[in-house]
Amino acid sequence: MPTTAPAPLTTLEVMTKQRVLSGVQPTGNLHIGNYLGAIRNWVAGQAQYDNFFCVVDLHAITVPHNPATLAADTYAIAALYLACGIDLDYSTIFVQSHVSAHSELTWLLNCITPLNWLEDMIQFKEKAVKQGQNVGVGLLDYPVLMAADILLYDADKVPVGEDQKQHIELTRDIVDRLNHQYGQGETVLKSPAPLIQTDGARVMSLTDGTKKMSKSDPSDLSRINVLDPPDVIQTKIKKCKTDPVRGLTFGDPARPECNNLLTLYMLMSGQSKEAVAAECVEMGWGQFKPLLTEAAIAHLQPIQTKYAEITADKSYLESVLREGRQKAEAIANATLTRVKQALGYSLPL
Ligand code: AMP
Ligand code: TRP
After folding, report:
1. Stated pTM of the model
2. DSSP, residue by residue, 174-237
């Protein structure tokens, strides 16, 4: 069926729309947790908002990284944004490190953020344990950089998975503190709100339904990557953890794998919860797994085709990111100037 191109936004529409900002790190492959928890929701809501989506490559070096692949991984995530349906008529795509205001605002915010706020962050505690003795300052400071990402764009909404909620609450606390200490009754920075969908906000590992699906899990069998070919998806679902109970139902806390796999099937097949519940209530795993496999392959296949097209033309992606950088920089630099003025800096002559 021919699709009609969306009408370009009028200036008034852009001015009245709320702003959205979000990002994904270029570390490892994008998996269906990232897709269902975040990017799918960016796409679904994009016509409603004025959107900025960045590839957060400064965050990527808060854990040991490979310099030989960082640039290519950054481009791959930007291409995946487009392949998943981010539309440049509604959204701006850019790379975090291309806009130096992100680093600069982070420093300014660091100086007003109490250390114990950062030490309390769940993600820091979890990741710090994995790093052992060598945990870097960057990992502790990660949420302040994330706050800078959001605040530079005066974002109203931040669509993310459940795991990022605490970082957005911290961002709001930083805003209150800065406005209170330096605002002289004016609002210097705007407070953002998280935008978290109920379904897919926390996609669990295929090998352990009590653990979040994660890029850093050493086993690739624990996740389905957006770019996994059909045979790999089939193998992963065939081997995924289930339980010995016959009849598949939502909502039993004693059956985390069952909840997760039914939710994945619901989201991948685009059916309602009621329809999936009715279809699967008497099923065994042997019957369910091929259905989930088919739905996952069918859902991801158009994204994979589009990704191949986009990555075949590097100059196109470069032009998207160049334009994105220009738009992002104009807004970010204005906010940075506002904060510097509030803190009492003389501005460059
Ligand atoms: P990251 O890969 O850590 O850069 O995460 C990018 C986005 O994906 C963030 O909005 C996360 O909240 C979201 N996300 C990551 N893992 C999951 C998961 N297992 N379930 C749902 N959302 C997730
Ligand atoms: N911390 C986020 C994650 O790992 C990624 C991120 C960085 C982000 N900056 C952001 C998300 C700004 C939303 C807004 O998932």
Report:
1. 0.93
2. HHHHHHHHH-TTS--SPPPEEE--STTTTPBPSS-TTSB--TT-S-GGG--BTT--HHHHHHHH
